[in-house]
Design goal:
The complex is a heterodimer of chains A (114) and B (113). With 114 residues, chain A is mostly beta strands. Chain A contains no helices and eleven strands. In chain A, strand 5 and strand 6 form a beta hairpin. With 113 residues, chain B is mainly beta. Helices cover 0% and strands 50% of the residues of chain B. Chain B is globular, with a radius of gyration of 14 Å. The chains are: A mainly beta (114), B mainly beta (113). At the A-B interface, strand 4, strand 5 and strand 10 of A face strand 5, strand 9 and strand 10 of B.
Chain lengths: 114, 113
Amino acid sequence: NAGVTQTPKFRVLKTGQSMTLLCAQDMNHEYMYWYRQDPGMGLRLIHYSVGEGTTAKGEVPDGYNVSRLKKQNFLLGLESAAPSQTSVYFCASSIRDRPNYGYTFGSGTRLTVV
Amino acid sequence: RKEVEQDPGPFNVPEGATVAFNCTYSNSASQSFFWYRQDCRKEPKLLMSVYSSGNEDGRFTAQLNRASQYISLLIRDSKLSDSATYLCAVNSKSGGSQGNLIFGKGTKLSVKP
């Protein structure tokens, strides 16, 4: 059981380039999330999804887009990368109606924008 | 007041010590509370859910004080392997049927020999 898998694990982008981060979970979780983690800022929610075909904005959505075409996958897109988007990105998933189960996180994607 | 606040530390303690972390939250409607552990350059991993009656898992005890809006984590008999950053998380109830988790910035613990 792989849990939550993120690809790629590392990436260096030039300013203005685009890329897509992929998150895949095999736990049949309904809810999925994208967070970014920066030193001194903690984990901040970018976007989330409560089910296939649905997405919603979190705390820091600007500069990012997401899609949830399949229940098991949640994609995070950067259309035109900026140095301010240098961060560690974590995907997470959770079970609907089981709030006490918490979130399961992927191992993260370290993104540097130069 | 920020939604979820933690003392950033670091807490430097000797092996065998007892250490306590507190975390305050601002949304009185929050109903789910957690402690996560995050090792350096790794993802957060769920350590414990925090229940109203308090709960214990080995050397770890978590408590919830709804009146004062804080949760606590007590680690007894600290081990070197307990060195990590401890994140508290509280659900926001601002989206979806169960809300999203808001994380504190974490408290760094360093256990020394």
